[in-house]
Amino acid sequence: MSSNEELSHSLRTFADDCNANEKLRVMNRDWNRVIHIHAEDTLADYTLTCHEGTVVYSEGTPANCDLRVAANCEVLTQVFYGEVSPNEPYNEGTLRVDGSEDDVLRLDFITAMLWEE
After folding, report:
1. Which stretches within 21-116 are classed as H helix?
2. Domains located in the chain, CATH noted
3. Is 102 helix (H, G, I), strand (E, B) or coil?
4. Helix 101-116 to helix 4-20 angle, to the nearest 10 degrees?
5. In this predicted structure, what is the pLDDT of residue 56?
6. pLDDT value, residue 114
7. pLDDT confidence of residue 112
């Protein structure tokens, strides 16, 4: 079972991988969003801020967010490490993503670009 520490590491790794991918940086240069990640089993909260192609990780709940991603630590850790496609837990109902349809699709595309390369 994943811990808050493992989830935190997976989110930092995800942000670093996004920032190291030049195609993603260019694609997301105009996608400025705040993503709230909530671990339901440990009640831990994290934030990914996407601004002008750069992704910044931080701990805690953002004041405002555009997207909210919620699941238990294990599912979130697996998704942000790229061990499972977000579609699997989403379809099973163990991962919830709340936000505009365009933002949800963009986040899904980002994960696909990261782990298919």
Report:
1. 22-27, 73-81, 87-92, 101-116
2. 4-110 (3.30.1050.10)
3. helix
4. 80
5. 98
6. 85
7. 86
Q: SS3 helix, strand, coil % of the chain, rounded to 5?
A: 45, 25, 30
2-27 pLDDT, tens digit each: 799 999 999 999 999 999 999 999 99
Nearest to 111 by CA among 5, 3, 13: 13
Residue holding tokens 């837990």?
A: 89
Q: Which residues of the chain have pLDDT under 50?
A: none
Spatial separation of the C-alpha atoms in residues 94 and 77, rounded to whole Å: 13
Beta pairing partners, 71: 39
Residues 116 and 98: their CA atoms lie apart, in Å, by: 24
Residue among 3, 99, 107 nearest 55 (CA):
107
The amino acid at residue 19 is N
| Structural contact between residues 67 and 55, judged by C-beta atoms closer than 8 angstroms | no
Quote the tokens at residue 59. Answer: 């701990």
- C-alpha–C-alpha distance, residues 10 and 105, integer Å: 21
Residue 115 has a pLDDT of 76
